[in-house]
């Protein structure tokens, strides 16, 4: 996999969802989000075939390279490798973190969804680059198994137990993003508030501005 050599900016991390993008393609969402300042876009499409994911991933990787930003593939280490993406994101029921790290090499970005601080510590030991905790708030989730909201305090708890950047996900909106950043999140993973927006670029740009303001206070 491609070595992601630029500084990793997790501030605004956009997760694609074909059910929420108002008919826009993964590639269109990615282009618009990168244009608004997103440092990371994750390709996530549970219903797509391997061939389709591969073809979309190739196109999205080219968009990411042109933007000087990161493309992360959800779950599928094979697709991440085949498309030469810079990153992979795993859930707790996916491939073991240590195995994925061995397959990816030490320079690729590897993110892991966690539910508690113990899992965050394990992810750090096994080679994760960052962890994601959520849902922080009630969310219009594309995940059927999403649990109850854990609140911003969960970010602070995990930060006390790991040196990894902590990404907050779930119900993150422009109205509450500053609360999450103030709790210690390195960034926010956003679906609906950006992917479903009429103007994805402007929604991304506004999210970035609010995060920058929260960091200054």
How would you describe this structure to a colleague?
The N and C termini lie far apart (38 Å). α1 (26-35) packs parallel to α2 (50-67), α1 (26-35) packs across α9 (200-216) and α2 packs across α3. This protein has one domain (12-216): Alpha-Beta Barrel (TIM Barrel). Helix content is 40%, strand content 16%. The mean pLDDT is 95. It is an alpha/beta fold. It is globular and about 40 Å long. An eight-stranded parallel beta barrel has the order 1-2-3-4-5-6-7-8, surrounded by seven helices. It has nine helices and eight strands. The chain has helices spanning 26-35, 50-67, 77-83, 97-104, 117-126, 153-159, 177-182, 192-195, 200-216; strands spanning 12-15, 40-43, 70-74, 87-90, 109-114, 130-133, 166-169, 187-190.
Short characterization:
The protein is an alpha/beta fold and 217 residues long.
How are the SSEs placed, and which strands pair?
Elements: E1 12-15, H1 26-35, E2 40-43, H2 50-67, E3 70-74, H3 77-83, E4 87-90, H4 97-104, E5 109-114, H5 117-126, E6 130-133, H6 153-159, E7 166-169, H7 177-182, E8 187-190, H8 192-195, H9 200-216
Parallel strand pairs: 1-2, 1-8, 2-3, 3-4, 4-5, 5-6, 6-7, 7-8
Helix pairs in contact: 1-2, 1-9, 2-3
């Amino acid at each position: 996999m491609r070595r992601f050599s630029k500084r990793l900016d997790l501030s605004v991390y956009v997760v694609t969802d074909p059910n929420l993008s108002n008919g826009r393609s993964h590639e269109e969402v990615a282009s618009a989000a990168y244009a608004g300042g997103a440092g990371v876009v994750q390709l996530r499409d549970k219903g797509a075939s391997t061939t389709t994911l591969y073809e979309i991933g190739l196109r999205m990787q080219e968009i990411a390279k042109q933007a000087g930003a990161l493309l992360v593939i959800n779950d599928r280490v094979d697709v991440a490798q085949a498309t030469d993406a810079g990153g992979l994101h795993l859930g707790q029921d996916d491939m073991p973190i240590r195995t994925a790290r061995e397959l990816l090499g030490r320079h690729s970005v590897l993110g892991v969804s966690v539910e508690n601080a113990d899992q965050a510590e394990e992810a750090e030991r096994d080679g994760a680059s960052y962890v994601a905790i959520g849902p922080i708030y009630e969310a219009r989730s594309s995940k059927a198994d999403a649990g109850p909201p854990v609140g911003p305090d969960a970010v602070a708890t995990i930060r006390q137990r790991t040196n990894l950047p902590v990404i907050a996900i779930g119900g993150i909106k422009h109205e509450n993003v500053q609360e999450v950043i103030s709790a210690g999140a390195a960034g926010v993973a956003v679906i609906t508030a950006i992917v479903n927006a009429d103007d994805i670029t402007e929604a991304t740009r506004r999210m970035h501005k609010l995060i920058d303001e929260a960091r200054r206070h």
